[in-house]
Design a protein that fits this description.
Single alpha-helices involved in coiled-coils or other helix-helix interfaces, 3 domains, 5-stranded mixed sheet, single chain, Heat Shock Protein 90, alpha+beta
Length: 374
């Protein structure tokens, strides 16, 4: 998913606030093993250097996590060479630690493996885990005085597997967050439609009263001019009130959602017995293009239903372009000329730096397309 883990993940895919550092920092408990080894086997300056080395590794581990968290755990948030360089730096500290902590310094490889899986794309992260696993197993067999008990390799495997599972969980949580956001957009769209229906009823009542009063004033204008004037004044008052209602509706409800328009398009096309072929995900469409693309769908689908005589309508979406295509009779003098809808759509596209195209679709039919940027 080109979709990288979004900001919402702070609430759904990873521990927020200080709990994120607590969840990661608690695993530093396992550095007690090399800490004990240094304290028991080293003395004087060597002990101090070993403890400082161990402290530097712990700080590097937490620091890398802080950077990753700030970048929202996106694998493309910083250049690959920077992340690999940081991992090599941690590896260098771990190898230096073997001079004072001996074999127990291999515990640090578990942290490096976990960080690699968390910070890199999964194939590369898994490859690094396998390299660390092979290197540790080889070192325990060839370094004099080191024993091969299999515990370090097993710990590296489990650490990498645990972080892999955590990444999958984070991605699923992110997808769930997006699904909830789409549902919220649909709920807002439905509420706007409900309000529009209510407003329609109110305006219908007002216009009905205006019509009745205008007819009455017309009949009274000769017989009772004063009452006719009063009725005309009422008509003016009602008309101004209705106009105010329309302006308020336009000002407060002109925004539309891309998700809502896709749902409405499917319903309208099916009602017109036109087979809809619509996208099922909006992941590639940036937020700043969604309202314009929603207007394209509304205008394009309306034209398909009214003018095309089509049996199928296809909508194609990408990050910068939307196309509405049908298999109908294609461009005609009526559809090729800009009507009010296409004129308004062209103006909207121009305001956002996009271009609008109308013409024949590949294989026949009509094509309406809007592309953002060059």
């Amino acid at each position: 998913m080109k979709r990288t883990l979004p900001a919402e993940l702070a609430d759904n895919g990873r521990p927020p606030g200080r709990w994120g550092f607590l969840a990661v920092g608690i695993w530093l408990f396992y550095l007690v093993q090399p800490l004990t080894e240094i304290w028991q086997t080293q003395h004087g300056v060597t002990r101090i250097l070993g403890l400082l080395n161990l402290l530097a590794f712990a700080v590097a581990y937490l620091g890398f996590f802080a950077v990753l968290r700030w970048q929202e755990f996106r694998p493309d948030a910083s250049p690959l060479w920077q992340r690999l360089g940081y991992l090599l730096f941690m590896l260098g500290l771990a190898l230096l630690l073997t001079m004072t902590a001996g074999q127990t310094a291999l515990t640090c490889m578990v942290y490096i493996a976990a960080t690699a899986v968390l910070s890199l794309r999964l194939p590369l992260g898994v490859a690094i885990v396998l390299l660390l696993l092979g290197g540790v197993e080889l070192a325990m067999r060839v370094v004099p005085g080191w024993s091969d008990d299999g515990s370090y390799g097993f710990a590296i495997f489990l650490g990498g597997l645990a972080v892999f599972a955590m990444r999958v969980s984070m991605q699923r949580s992110s997808e769930l967050s997006r699904a909830r956001q789409d549902m919220a957009e649909l709920a807002v769209q439905e509420e706007r439609n409900r309000f529009a229906r209510d407003l329609h009823d109110i305006l219908g009542h007002s216009l009905t009263v205006i019509t009745v009063k205008a007819e009455l004033a017309g009949r009274l204008i000769q017989a009772n001019p004063e009452r006719a004037a009063a009725e005309v004044a009422d008509v003016e008052s009602l008309a101004r009130a209705a106009l105010g209602d329309v302006r308020a509706a336009v000002a407060g409800y002109r925004e539309i959602s891309l998700a809502g328009e896709l749902v409405s398009a499917r319903t309208a096309l099916q009602a017109a017995e036109i087979k809809p072929d619509l996208p099922t995900t909006l992941d590639e469409v940036p937020e700043e293009n969604r309202e314009l693309f929603a207007w394209v769908i509304r205008e394009g689908v309306t034209n398909v239903i009214r003018h095309s005589g089509a049996k199928r309508c296809t909508i194609k979406l990408s990050g910068r372009q939307i196309e509405v295509l049908d298999d109908g009779k294609g461009p005609t003098a009526e559809t090729s000329a800009d009507g009010h809808g296409l004129i308004g759509l062209r103006e909207r596209a121009h305001q956002t730096g996009a271009g609008l195209q109308v013409g024949q679709a590949p294989g026949g039919g009509f094509r309406l397309a809007v592309k953002v940027g060059p």
